[in-house]
């Protein structure tokens, strides 16, 4: 339960930020620039949280640059993709996000945080207002050892965030030099986190790690006729002791998500749903926040949404991002009837919607399978399994099933054999024509970008006909949940009655996403968190006790 009386403080500061994600650090830096004292409390021993293990892409429309872009076109695209307004994606929240992206880019540049163009474009480049390139940026490589001891608390082996051959060669060359010079370089979200931590060091932001927040400190003010509650701090486990930290200006919750909590997944997300279908390290930080929400009467939104991605999975094997495995030639996805049901090259959220629709039609015991032949195996990865000879461990673990014929493969994975053979025959004819008559795979710009551009006549189509054949189970995986505390355009947490909860702000995965059920482009979630972090800092600076 929240503490309802002002306790004796072990520490007093202006602002406490729970979490150390890039969004959290943006809030911390902006608060320091406003002259406020800040404590960042990271619950785990890894700075950056789950966000620091990913690519670090940022969707930042509306910036000045070589590609014509403005707020109006970005808003047109965003509204078309996200759809109807709802509490988590209200008009004020959309406006605040899309007017904050350009400012975030220039602010990061002023801090010395370098970003560079990424090859990715909007997820739906054929929709009005979309751009095939120019809106997505990635962090430039940085020397992470520049932040001193803090480098020990960054995730090991963070993604480089590089796509091009020259980028990868440069990244590899720098890594070779690490050992000789005693220096360490990072890309992707590690680079972003490291660059922001360097700014925090310059501005003297106080950072704790392995400091989980156990509850909020809530004070009551007023008289016998009317009382009001305010979040006034947190109770933290720090070095084996309980520390009460009072925050004179406010508390910012910057990490959430309930993807690791099986019970909450069953309650809120579509079924079937499993914690081990989360790609990466699942979080349950949001579970505590849901308890606090119930106790304080806080609003929630977007609880049925997640950052959906098709995943390759077998029991006991970590789920892997299907990535390009589905979009490239010489493979297709079937259900238990042996028939295709979706354009395999579509956006991840759309694929998972189709997969859940199939669960609704055939029942939750239905299974979906990626079927590929030896041409696919020779050229393309299966999740983390590199092209070429199949490792024994992949088959022994049950992750990949192999067979000499399609009927044998169907028998092994319990799929209708006649349906699978008919699908393979029809798909071969489509591949020869370069036209998927059933689901238009490879017809759109985004499809072709996800496929193999060297393949002709369609970069996403190729017959599945050369033995041996391989099957991997496909599940509706996610990068985390999108639901959480409902906030306004200033990142203030709203109560169930619609008013703001004094002293409490939420950003990133602690708050419901402005993207609602959609995923408009790579880097929307991270950009949203960082824009919201700056908005929270501005709101805190303008508030009074």
Taken as a percent bin, the fraction of beta residues is: 15-25%
Number of helices: 14
Profile the largest sheet.
8 strands, mixed
Rg value: 24 Å
Helix percentage range = 25-40%
Q: Please state the structural category.
A: alpha+beta
On the 0 to 100 scale, the average pLDDT is 91
How many extended strands? 21
Low-pLDDT parts are 1-5, 158-181
Termini gap:
23 Å
Shape: globular
In summary, what is this structure?
With 545 residues, the chain is α+β, with helices and mostly antiparallel strands. The protein has helices spanning 22-33, 71-82, 91-111, 165-181, 188-202, 262-268, 285-296, 348-362, 374-379, 392-396, 406-413, 417-433, 445-450, 524-542; strands at 11-18, 38-41, 58-59, 115-117, 136-139, 142-143, 185-186, 206-208, 213-222, 227-238, 241-253, 300-301, 306-314, 317-321, 331-334, 368-372, 401-403, 469-481, 484-485, 492-494, 500-506. 32% of the residues lie in helices and 21% in strands.
Defining traits:
545 residues; eight-stranded mixed sheet; single chain; 21% strand; alpha+beta; six-stranded antiparallel sheet
What does this structure look like?
The structure is a single chain. With about 550 residues, the protein is an alpha+beta fold. Helices cover about 30% and strands about 20% of the residues. It has 14 helices and 21 strands. It has helices at about 20-35, 70-80, 90-110, 165-180, 190-200, 260-270, 285-295, 350-360, 375-380, 390-395, 405-415, 415-435, 445-450, 525-540, and strands spanning about 10-20, 40, 60, 115, 135-140, 140-145, 185, 205-210, 215-220, 225-240, 240-255, 300, 305-315, 315-320, 330-335, 370, 400-405, 470-480, 485, 490-495, 500-505. Strands 1, 2, 8, 9, 10, 11, 20 and 21 form an 8-stranded mixed beta sheet that branches. Strands 13, 14, 15, 16, 17 and 18 form a 6-stranded antiparallel beta sheet that branches. The protein has a 3-stranded antiparallel beta sheet with strand order 3-5-4. Strand 20 (about 490-495) and strand 21 (about 500-505) form a beta hairpin. Helix 2 crosses helix 3. The radius of gyration is 24 Å and the shape is globular. It starts with 10 loop residues before the first strand and ends with a helix. The model is unreliable at about 1-5 and about 160-180 (pLDDT under 50).
């Amino acid at each position: 339960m929240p503490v309802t009386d002002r306790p004796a403080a072990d520490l007093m500061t202006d602002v406490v930020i729970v979490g150390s994600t890039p969004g959290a650090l943006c809030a911390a830096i902006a608060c320091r620039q406003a002259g406020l004292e800040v404590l960042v409390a990271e619950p785990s021993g890894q700075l950056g949280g789950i966000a620091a293990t990913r690519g670090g892409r940022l969707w930042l429309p509306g910036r000045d640059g070589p590609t014509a872009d403005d707020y109006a076109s970005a808003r047109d695209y965003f509204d078309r993709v996200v759809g109807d307004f709802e509490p988590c994606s209200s008009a004020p929240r959309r406006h605040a996000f899309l007017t904050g992206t350009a400012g975030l880019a220039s602010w990061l540049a002023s801090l010395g945080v370098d970003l560079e163009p990424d090859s990715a474009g909007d997820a739906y480049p054929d929709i009005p207002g979309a751009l095939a390139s120019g809106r997505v940026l990635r962090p430039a490589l940085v020397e992470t050892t520049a932040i001193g001891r803090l480098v020990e608390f960054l995730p090991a082996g963070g993604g480089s965030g590089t796509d091009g051959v020259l980028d990868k060669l440069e990244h590899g060359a720098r890594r070779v030099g690490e050992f000789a010079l005693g220096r360490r370089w990072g890309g992707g979200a590690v680079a972003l986190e490291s660059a922001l931590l360097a700014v925090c060091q310059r501005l003297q932001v106080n950072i704790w790690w392995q400091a989980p927040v156990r509850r909020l400190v809530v004070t009551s003010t007023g008289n016998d006729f009317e009382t009001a509650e305010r979040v006034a701090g947190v109770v933290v486990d720090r070095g084996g002791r309980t520390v009460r930290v009072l925050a004179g200006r406010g508390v910012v919750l910057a990490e959430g998500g309930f993807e690791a909590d099986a019970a909450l997944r069953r309650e809120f997300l579509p079924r079937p749903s499993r914690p081990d279908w989360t790609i990466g390290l699942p979080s349950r930080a949001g579970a505590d926040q849901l308890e606090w929400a119930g106790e304080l009467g806080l609003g929630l939104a977007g609880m049925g949404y997640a950052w959906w991605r098709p995943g390759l999975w077998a029991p006991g094997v970590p789920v892997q991002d299907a990535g390009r495995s589905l979009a490239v030639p010489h493979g297709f996805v079937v259900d238990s009837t042996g028939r295709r049901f979706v354009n395999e090259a579509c956006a991840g959220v759309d694929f998972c919607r189709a997969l859940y629709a199939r669960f609704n039609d055939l029942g939750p015991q239905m299974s979906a399978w990626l079927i590929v032949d030896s041409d696919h195996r020779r050229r393309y990865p299966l999740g983390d399994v590199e092209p070429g000879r199949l490792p024994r461990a992949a088959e022994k673990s049950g992750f990949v099933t192999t067979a000499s014929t399609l009927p044998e493969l169907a028998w092994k994975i319990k799929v209708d054999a006649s349906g699978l053979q008919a699908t393979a025959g029809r798909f071969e004819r489509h591949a020869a024509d370069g036209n998927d008559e059933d689901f238009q795979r490879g017809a759109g710009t985004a499809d072709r970008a996800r496929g193999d551009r060297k393949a002709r006549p369609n970069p996403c189509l190729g017959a599945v006909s050369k033995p041996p054949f391989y099957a991997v189970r496909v599940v509706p995986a996610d990068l985390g949940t999108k639901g959480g505390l409902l906030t306004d355009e200033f990142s203030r947490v709203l109560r169930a009655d619609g008013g703001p909860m004094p002293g409490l702000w939420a950003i990133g995965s602690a708050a419901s996403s402005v993207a609602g059920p959609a995923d408009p482009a790579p880097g929307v979630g991270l950009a949203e968190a960082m824009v919201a972090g700056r908005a929270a800092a501005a709101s805190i600076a303008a508030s009074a006790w």
